[in-house]
Specification:
Blueprint lengths: L6 E5 L3 H12 L3 E5 L13 E3 L6 H10 L2 E4 L6 H8 L8 H7 L2 H10 L7 E4 L5 H8 L3 E5 L9 E4 L2 H9 L6 E5 L5 E9 L5 E3 L3 E6 L2 E7 L5 H17 L4 E10 L3 E8 L9 H4 L4 H10 L12 E7 L10 H5 L4 E5 L10 E8 L3 H14 L1
Parallel strand pairs: 1-2, 1-4, 2-3
Antiparallel strand pairs: 5-8, 6-7, 6-8, 9-10, 9-11, 9-13, 11-12, 12-15, 13-14, 15-17, 16-17
Helix pairs in contact: 1-10, 2-3, 3-4
The structure holds adenosine-5'-triphosphate and magnesium ion.
Length: 373
């Protein structure tokens, strides 16, 4: 067990890192954040903020020496960084799992090879592979860049070979996957924590509503039959187990064809759809990340109140801030802001969660507040 007072390392300084820092400090740990951005949301509240590149040898050495264990908040941290740090101290999740999750080709191939259903896909590594991939997948389809995509960025919906060719040309020579566009009944996600001795703690299933490729609302528990929710949890746990995963991870699912589950992608870190755990569960996903990192008892994921989480994106900010009074006057609405300076459209600036013993009331309140902001 890594005891409170120790220093924990966090790779990445975004809002997920910030909420980890907060949870770790609540438990009495110190946190060192590595992020090149001088204004990073996590760096700002960390004990130490190393403003350096993820491959900066001097910073990695310092982190490795001073931290008792290290984790990450984003999947695009170079696997080499994780390997270098692992020479000094435990790094969870490890490079192998992150390497799979950070590359759509590796991820979908791994899922298929391990028997998990994915949307039909084909890999496109060069322009002369576009036509055959289109013939294999059909239309409509989605072209997704294999690396560094997030929040629907690096994706294009295509309906013809010509569109696929144009979209591939626009991806800057990166390898892509062409994925069949599925008709979604809904989208679900499962966040879980798994520790070094293989204990797995599953959070309730979230139902996720997206707007323009970005998560908009998460409704928890998901309004799906309990057998389907259980099946999603079972699949998520099996994925974590087969990856020998240690830490917090999320699995995103599509529901298609009358309740069939298809794995969309996995995130080797806490997930936007798990933010409701801060206000509605006994252990938040960030405390879970601390617990699994430090070999503490794994903690209870039980949800004590139904919850609806709403993302607050940059476009809500005009010349002035959103109307926070409209939100804060409701005791059942909890505001979380990430301390980001500039509110660009599509940028995740914060979220709020509405809790209510009745899920439908939480949803109605969330919609009312969202419209008033
Ligand atoms: P995020 O970072 O928000 O998870 P991302 O950039 O990694 O997003 P995906 O999760 O692959 O992207 O896709 C974003 C959203 O686009 C999905 O949640 C879904 O709503 C839609 N989408 C993606 N792929 C498909 C598909 N094959 N069929 C139907 N809808 C899709
Ligand atoms: Mg996604």
């Amino acid at each position: 067990m890594i005891l409170p007072g120790a220093t924990l390392g966090m790779l990445g300084g975004g809002q997920l890192g910030r909420m980890f820092v907060s949870a770790a400090r609540t438990l009495g740990y110190r946190v060192m954040v590595l992020d090149p951005d001088p204004l990073s949301p996590a760096g700002e509240i960390a004990d130490v903020h190393l403003r350096a590149d993820y491959l900066d040898a001097v910073s990695l050495l310092r982190m490795g020496r001073e931290c008792a264990a290290i984790t990450t908040e984003f999947e695009n941290v170079p696997a080499q960084t994780l390997r270098t740090l692992a020479l000094h101290c435990p790094v969870k999740p490890g490079a192998e799992a992150v390497e799979i999750a950070q590359n759509r080709v590796a991820e979908k191939t791994w899922l298929r090879e391990h028997g998990f259903a994915t949307a039909p896909f084909a890999v496109i590594a060069s322009a002369d592979e576009v036509t055959s991939a289109c013939a294999q997948i059909g239309f409509p389809a989605v072209l997704k860049v294999s690396r560094f995509g997030y929040d629907g960025k690096g994706q294009a919906r295509v309906a013809s070979v010509a569109e696929a060719q144009a979209a591939f040309a626009g991806m800057g020579g990166e390898v892509c996957v062409l994925e069949q566009m599925l008709t979604l009944e809904c989208e679900l996600s499962v966040v879980l924590g798994r520790n070094a001795i293989g204990e797995c703690a599953l959070y309730p299933v979230a139902e996720n509503l997206h707007e323009a490729g970005i998560l908009d609302f998460s409704i928890v528990p998901a309004r799906v039959p309990s057998a389907l929710a259980q099946q999603a949890q079972t699949v998520a746990q099996a994925i974590a187990q087969q990856l020998a995963y240690c830490g917090v991870m999320a699995v995103e699912f599509f529901v298609v064809n009358n309740g069939q589950l298809v794995v969309n992608e996995m995130a080797p870190r806490p997930h936007n759809s798990g933010h409701y755990t801060l206000d509605a569960c006994l252990t938040s996903q960030f405390e879970m990340q601390v617990r699994t990192l430090c070999n503490l008892p794994i903690g209870a994921t039980r949800q004590h109140t139904p919850a609806v989480m709403v993302n607050l994106l940059g476009e809500l900010w005009g010349d002035s801030q959103p109307n926070w009074a409209a939100l804060l006057q409701h005791p059942q609405a909890k505001l979380h802001l990430y301390g980001k300076q500039s509110a660009r459209p599509g940028r995740k600036m914060g979220h709020f969660t509405c809790v209510d013993a009745q899920l439908e009331r939480a949803l109605a309140l969330a919609q009312t507040i969202r419209a008033q902001l």
